[in-house]
Amino acid sequence: MTETVGATASGRGDKSGAKQGDKRKRPVGLTVERLYTTPGVHPYDEVDWQRRDVVMTNWRDGTVNFEQRGVEFPDFWSVNATNIVTSKYFRGAVGSPQRESSLRQLIDRVVGAYHKAGVDNGYFATAEDAEIFAHELTWMLLHQVFSFNSPVWFNVGTSSPQQVSACFILAVDDTMESILNWYREEGLIFKGGSGAGLNLSRIRSSKELLSSGGTASGPVSFMRGADASAGTIKSGGATRRAAKMVVLDVDHPDIVEFVETKAKEEAKVRVLRDAGFDMDLGGADITSVQYQNANNSVRVTDEFMRAVEEGTEFGLRARMTGEVIDTIDAKTLFRGIAQAAWECADPGIQYDDTINDWHTCPESGRITASNPCSEYMHLDNSSCNLASLNLLKFLRDDGRFDAERFAKAVEIVITAMDISICFADFPTEPIADTTRKFRQLGIGYANLGALLMATGHAYDSEGGRSLAAAITSLMTGAAYKRSAELAGVVGTYEGYARNAEAHQRVMRKHAAANDAVRTLPASIPVHKLATITWKDALAIGERNGWRNAQASVLAPTGTIGLMMDCDTTGIEPDLALVKFKKLVGGGSMQIVNQTVPRALQVLGYQPEQAEAIIEYVAEHGHVIDAPGLRPEHYEVFDCAMGERSIAAMGHVRMMAAVQPFLSGAISKTVNMPEAATVADVEKIYMEGWRLGLKALAIYRDNCKVGQPLSAGKGAKETATADAAPVVEARPVRRRLPKKRPSETVSFTVGGAEGYLTAGSYPDDGLGEIFVKLGKQGSTLSGVMDAFSMSISVGLQYGIPLEFYVSKFSNLRFEPAGMTDDPDVRIATSVLDYLFRRLALDYLPYEKRAQLGIFSADERTAQVAESYGDVDLEALRTSVDAAPAQSETPAGVTPAPVEVGSSTELLELRLGKAADAPLCMTCGTKMRPAGSCYVCEGCGSTSGCS
């Protein structure tokens, strides 16, 4: 196979960068060389194909959501990727002859449209070049090297409108006609399952007068109508929840009201939930809560951030005249933004001056907003189509990143993305007009976290950031180089002539940022090629101009990440070291991520050592105290969740490392622990500005109500209008009788001996405990006596035992370790042991199962039940067929039957609740993907891409 793909367009014909439609002589087209394919061999003939049955069920109740049998996929595609592509992307009514049933049909449908449009619009020098391009595109999609965004798979090659974009930015002016048109356009975009963002700052504030003399409503009031519209369309049958972004400038007079909107609504949710209303997602009463269908962001300026640093006043300006009509203490406002984000995760921050300093088309208008996930930022009434490369596919067997192949793959993908604009349809005419004039593209990548781990780099390390920066620089440099070559073949984007100077200035800024990258050994070859690529891009662009106003973003890659069998999405680190994997023929397995063995090999561990470490990770879910693993290597295996989770600033530093090499921004939420303070949020937002980010959002664990179960509904339903006044109920202490049964258990935890005495009511309910630990009269003994008294009184006042068990199990402190109890072999603390023992003695099996607490006999029975009628050899064969497990010699165990996703598996292992929503399609707990969430069960996302 040849290792290059190239275009000689820049070296022949007209170099003036003539616009589309210019009658002057043009180069004859791109000359395409082979990168992956072999002459005379079709990509489909190089792989082994399998027939599979796709049956997808709801993990909560077992009902079948989707079924299609006999679909055809390559044998190396995982069951999960097969299920998601079949259910999401195959077109035609299920059961009809028109229904697609093979991956070949899907790829041919899409690639055929790109091939035809490329030929019709003069992209290729010869028919042979066009055929090579189609074969290369087919090979890369077939082998999961990259993927287009979901709208391409939904629409291209079908009778539906050929919408290819997932990201939209709208505009609204200070007129009622424009505001009502905003509602309409947003609704059309939601109807198609996509999302949109816009800036409301042109709408005059509630402190300003209308021309009639009345007071204006202000933008926040109009947000209510748009939010209700989004909620209605969502519940009216859209494929996923509506995704939208609302932005307001920091100098808008209504900024304080805007900042507080969602925080106040979150407080309302808590009050209504506690009063017995159904505040579950999709519940009967949740519609009374406003502003929940949008992400909110404040657009801050350098002037404002400097005022925060200096502690000075900041002016709020009238929308119509620009005059200062009010002032506010900048620190107070900034603290308010951080406080609201701490309470409910909104608003995020967008850094206006940084965004517009990197704007290639300032003569055509400022960048005022973003798409819902914050990665696409460009002109109002515009769109961006996305595609993402799977970085792990470019990791060679020797552990080196194949920079040359990566750069050539980028050229193929960016060519296809530009071709799509030639035949694409758009939801509104203004969006169509702007997109065709500026041809915005958003190439990006997935699996960065997996790549860093597989190469032995910690995510939060200089080496990790250096490699990520070099790869991102090479990607954008190669994309713009090809864009300049395309400009020499089919012309520049229409808005280029007006913005040529600014566009070239931004290209020089990217190249200068590349020169400033601190290279470390693994990143040196990638950075050298990036430097050469940027030099070529600038030279060709100076002659030809550029075909695209922007080229790159980092999107969430939710559904398409699962389609490519990626361990990690977008720029994210690994979620956890263990994951949930579906198997051919049904069932599931818990495996150690495929990147862990590769990392151990790169770090120099022998196969026997690696096997022991992997088995330890499979059992514990982390690497702390893994046998033979050196402590200095722990950081390589740090993840987003669980033990040794990556600190919030580690995420911010990684974003800052790659931001200078992106045309747009980064879809990512910086997760913060529940114990984080408002000051911590302020620090994150301030550092994001100082480090040159374009946008930043945070999420503090458990800051939102989530999906609580509503209590007291029965009482509410039976109440009548003429019922007596409600008297506040107070807890009543139910004391134990003088003579009551009790049981004493002696125990040992980590060498510390103690006694637990539990007293019961005559009807067998636990009513008191006494714990003897430490010498009589010691501080420890006194504290345990007081603790026992507190728990006992709580039990007698009616606090359920399962509440105490959920709170005190899994607490970690010394003494901890092995116990002498066969039912609880290891305890993370004395309290962990005590409440597990109490649960085993006093809670029914159903409640213990929810808490993940089982006796030794019950665990044995579960294993016997799982394996009793199973052909283990056949199961092992099916497991080995999956690519991830073929690289995982150890650390494979059956996944618990109640687990439906990696997030749920992580919760079960660590005893912690991951703050993620349930999938509205199949009920599985979703996992983070950028600033959105993705469902591993069916591929649904909560975002726009």
From TrEMBL:
Gene Ontology molecular functions: ribonucleoside-diphosphate reductase activity, thioredoxin disulfide as acceptor
Disordered: annotated segments: 1-29
Domain Ribonucleotide reductase large subunit C-terminal: 165-699
Domain of life: Bacteria
Ribonucleotide reductase class II vitamin B12-dependent N-terminal domain mapped to chain residues: 54-144
Keyword match Transferase: no
Function comment: Catalyzes the reduction of ribonucleotides to deoxyribonucleotides. May function to provide a pool of deoxyribonucleotide precursors for DNA repair during oxygen limitation and/or for immediate growth after restoration of oxygen.
PANTHER family named in the record: RIBONUCLEOSIDE-DIPHOSPHATE REDUCTASE, VITAMIN B12-DEPENDENT RIBONUCLEOTIDE REDUCTASE
UniProt name for this protein: Vitamin B12-dependent ribonucleotide reductase
Organism: Pseudonocardia acidicola
Top-level taxonomy: Bacteria, Bacillati, Actinomycetota, Actinomycetes, Pseudonocardiales
